[in-house]
């Protein structure tokens, strides 16, 4: 532990050394690092009634991680890893929530939390160099450091359909799914076929009287390869955890497999088919995109080969030619890769129908259901699987004000910026977990990387009696340019995807991720050190390492 010098550097006594917002992976680990390891006085907030973050709210039917079970915990505690248990090779939402509860129990983290509490505003007091944090309970506290783990995918996106308030049936958004929803024997409509929508559709199709899927964009999806994992398999994984985590943290996407170094365009069509078929049978979306060939995300010819393989699979699986046609994508295979446990097969059921809203757009929601340009679909339940205002959505919903009173909304008017995915100019001592322009990977290893950097930085500041840290404008600009340059070298930037904000009407399509991989990101953190930062900006521009 370190001795806190929080009352030095010409600012008044604060209520807390640090305020942490969020009780998911990032928030919980931050409380542990700052309070338990550094010995700081920490207050944490979350608007849920308990820990879990994204996995507290996303209780929708069929909720499942697309990362294999062995790489979806945090790695910092070896005993916790050894105690880990799971049924299948992919974790369900209840299993993930149970794990996060175990983390909270093991490190006594709830003691620092105030639950059922929303942070409504954060204001940086330049006179005293601290943050003033206000909640919906009317409380304002002060803290030297502000750490926000607001969630990459947690700000819900509900389309504003005409007549939505007139619907007489039940309405649910998958990200705010209440307990004890009974869909048995009901006529259900679902809008959205992204990762969440796919999972819900597969789960509820056998239970409902009829399911009408309102598809906005056809999806490329591959099998997830869900299977029960034996005790022997789990024991072997645990015996090799050190190497597994070493590989993951030095890899690109950190999904626990070696990314391919072989370009698809360098092999024959027959070899392409063989490799794709093998990956299809093993399962996993990231494995199919990054474990098969090295150029699927960068070379149009390789991308088309992968896309065409999936298109052929859809034609083979779906029995009705018209449904298969609607389900078959024609564009780039360049979004966050999806995987599923029987998505296309679901459309062979007699009680499932597909409506392409690109061909017959939704006109309005009526008291009875949904009306498109060619028909009205009567429903008892309407589900919105319409995703999230990703990355920056939760930040712009809070009144965040930094130096000179600049708001986060103003700073991000042309798209969210972020240095190293963790800090912003004008916002001293504010650390964002999974902020804009952080790594596009399996999330727990990225979260762990960032929280440890934040903790190390706070430790350095306290030990060296430093008041503030913030990025230099040129450093932030250079990082965004780096992210944009890497993005432009991929096909991801050529498609419409939530990873660039394209799912939100009126939102500027902009780079929001560092696509260079976790290994390169970790190297960048190590090599850059504090070169891109200003310490004690008010006092001087010294102390730059």
Automatic annotation (TrEMBL):
Name of this chain's protein: NAD(P)/FAD-dependent oxidoreductase
Protein family per UniProt: Belongs to the FAD-binding monooxygenase family.
InterPro entries per the UniProt record, alphabetical: FAD-binding_Monooxygenases, FAD/NAD-bd_sf, Flavin_mOase-like
EC number: 1.14.13.-
Domain of life: Bacteria
Keywords, comma-separated and alphabetical: FAD, Flavoprotein, NADP, Oxidoreductase
SUPFAM superfamilies in the cross-refs: FAD/NAD(P)-binding domain (SSF51905)
Keyword GTP-binding carried by entry: no
GO molecular function, one term: oxidoreductase activity
Keyword Flavoprotein: yes
UniProt source species: Niallia oryzisoli
């Amino acid at each position: 532990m370190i001795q806190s010098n929080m009352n030095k550097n010409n600012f008044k006594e604060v209520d807390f050394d640090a305020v942490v917002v969020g009780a998911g992976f990032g928030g919980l680990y931050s409380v542990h690092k700052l309070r338990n390891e550094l010995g700081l006085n920490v207050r944490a907030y979350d608007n849920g009634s308990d820990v879990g973050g994204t996995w507290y709210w996303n209780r929708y039917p069929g909720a499942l991680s697309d990362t294999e079970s062995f790489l979806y915990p945090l790695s910092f505690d070896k005993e916790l890893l050894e105690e880990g248990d799971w049924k299948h090779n992919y974790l369900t939402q209840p299993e993930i929530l149970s794990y996060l509860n175990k983390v909270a129990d093991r490190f006594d983290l709830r003691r620092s939390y105030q639950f059922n509490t929303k942070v409504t505003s954060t204001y940086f007091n330049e006179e005293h160099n601290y943050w003033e944090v206000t909640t919906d309970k009317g409380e304002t506290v002060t803290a030297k450091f502000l750490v926000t783990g607001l969630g990459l995918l947690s700000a819900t996106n509900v389309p504003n359909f005409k007549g939505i308030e007139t619907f007489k049936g039940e309405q649910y958004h998958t990200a705010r799914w209440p307990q004890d929803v009974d869909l048995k024997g009901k006529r259900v409509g679902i809008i959205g076929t992204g990762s969440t929508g796919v999972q819900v559709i597969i789960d509820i199709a056998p239970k409902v009287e009829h399911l009408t899927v309102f598809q906005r964009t056809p999806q490329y999806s591959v099998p997830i390869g869900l299977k029960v994992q034996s005790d022997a398999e789990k024991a072997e994984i645990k015996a090799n955890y050190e190497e597994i985590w070493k590989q993951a943290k030095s890899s690109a996407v950190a999904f626990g497999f070696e990314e391919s170094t072989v370009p698809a365009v360098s092999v024959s069509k027959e070899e392409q088919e063989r490799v794709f078929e093998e990956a299809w049978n093993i399962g996993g979306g990231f494995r199919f995109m990054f474990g098969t060939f090295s150029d699927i995300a960068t070379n149009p010819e390789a991308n088309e080969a992968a896309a065409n393989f999936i298109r052929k699979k859809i034609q083979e699986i779906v029995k009705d030619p018209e449904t298969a046609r609607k389900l078959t994508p024609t564009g780039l295979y360049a979004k966050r890769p999806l995987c599923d446990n029987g998505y296309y097969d679901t459309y062979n059921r007699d009680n499932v129908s597909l409506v392409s809203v690109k061909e017959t757009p939704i006109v309005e929601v009526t008291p009875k259901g949904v009306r498109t340009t060619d028909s009205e679909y009567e429903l008892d339940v309407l589900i919105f699987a319409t995703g999230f205002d990703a990355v920056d959505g939760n930040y712009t919903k809070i009144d965040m004000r930094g130096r000179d009173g600049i708001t986060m909304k103003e700073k991000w008017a042309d798209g969210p910026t972020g240095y190293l995915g963790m800090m912003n100019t004008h916002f001293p001592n504010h650390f964002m977990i999974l902020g804009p322009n952080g790594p596009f990977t399996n999330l727990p290893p990225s979260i762990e990387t960032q929280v440890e950097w934040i903790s190390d930085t706070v430790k350095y500041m306290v030990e060296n009696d430093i008041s503030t840290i913030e990025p230099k404008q040129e450093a932030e600009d250079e990082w965004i340019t780096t992210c944009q340059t890497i993005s432009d070298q991929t096909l991801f930037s050529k498609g419409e995807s939530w990873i660039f904000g394209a799912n939100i009407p009126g939102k500027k399509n902009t780079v929001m991720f560092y696509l260079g991989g976790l290994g390169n990101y970790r190297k960048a953190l190590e090599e850059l050190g504090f070169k891109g930062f200003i310490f004690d900006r008010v006092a001087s521009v010294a102390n730059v390492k």
